[in-house]
Amino acid sequence: xxxxxxxxxxxFKFGVAFGDLRTTVRCCGFEPRFVVPTKWKKFYGLKGPDKxxxxxxxxxxFPQAAQWLTRKxxxxxxxxxxxxxxxxxxxxxxxxxxx
Length: 99
Fold this sequence. Notes:
This protein is mainly alpha-helical and about 100 residues long. Helix content is about 60%, strand content about 0%. The longest helix has 23 residues, at about 75-95.
């Protein structure tokens, strides 16, 4: 059937946690930026919904982290690593532009 969304209480808790995280990042001196999957995946040449490609790429780029990427279900960790690396690249690009 019908797909259910997040309940009101769950949505509120998620919003509070998101706000806390954003505030923590700002208190550490960083301005959070949000990027849609299509943008960071295009940067890496990843296409389609198959997350195994992300895990394999993370293994190539971060061989020292292989112990945390051994299972297929570790794709979330892999994508987090790729997003972080993309963020570093974007930050470096911005630093070159600023006077």
